[in-house]
């Protein structure tokens, strides 16, 4: 290990489910040849981090949480030296170190023409089953690391590694069914939805922002004018469905991007779709999805799942962010606030996306 890199580091850890994080001193992780050591400058916090804290994902303990890391490369593994250097500003995707041999790896090669680590049966997942980024340093797989454009700050970059990648991946799932100018509904205007609206507008689609909370819908007020939705609707209001359908001449939306995990809201959203419309499902409710088969069959709807975005898709997303100036609404806290971050999230005492800045 380089003399400039300490042997130990601070880290927040989950040592017991449903209990506050503990602040610990742990060893700086060693590098494998394909890896990079990244000094973390900012990290995001989202709903799945709450699921990890509650034990819903059966994560091994102790575990360093959070899976939206950005920082600078401070050490490069031997196999990574051709493409990466010390000082690079990067974001780290939460799937890494694919085995290359399992059924998932073989299947991804057949489907996409190359290995896609998202589907490896033995992949590591930072912040879920393996240590994440609420720490001074984190190890990244060079194959699933993304250069951060100079125009994107560390604070803005962090949410892009999960919320951004998830919203972008969902829109990509819908794009084969869409034409420029089609109207997309984005259901749930939180960390994912606010980015989904902007991505859809940047790609030339019209949008309707849908949520059951006026406070969430107000996030769209702070978007650049060109990215604001064409229509905003609170789904609890009378005649919400009728008002949305009116905007499409009664035909229905071309797609809905469901960022909420409410079973009822997702089922309701299918009634907003046109013939052949597509619903992309992102939420992970504790119960199984339930949908009315009538509109699915008689309007020939398409239901798509979407598991974040591939490295190639995220690179495409970063280019759009850089070109168009897509930005999240953020609440930024410091490392000293890290123990109360889960409480802040659950109490909704923040605006937009919650990000911890480490320096």
Automatic annotation (TrEMBL):
InterPro entries assigned to the protein according to its UniProt record, in alphabetical order: ADH-like_C (IPR013149), ADH-like_N (IPR013154), ER (IPR020843), GroES-like_sf (IPR011032), NAD(P)-bd_dom_sf (IPR036291)
GO CC term, one of those recorded: cytoplasm
Coiled coil ranges: none
Source species, domain of life: Eukaryota
All copies of domain Enoyl reductase (ER), residue ranges: 21-356
One of the record's GO molecular function terms: alcohol dehydrogenase (NAD+) activity
Keywords: Metal-binding, Oxidoreductase, Zinc
Matches recorded under Pfam families: ADH_N, ADH_zinc_N
Cofactor(s) essential for the protein: Zn(2+)
Protein family: Belongs to the zinc-containing alcohol dehydrogenase family.
Name this protein carries in UniProt: DNA, SC111
Provenance organism: Aspergillus oryzae (strain ATCC 42149 / RIB 40) (Yellow koji mold)
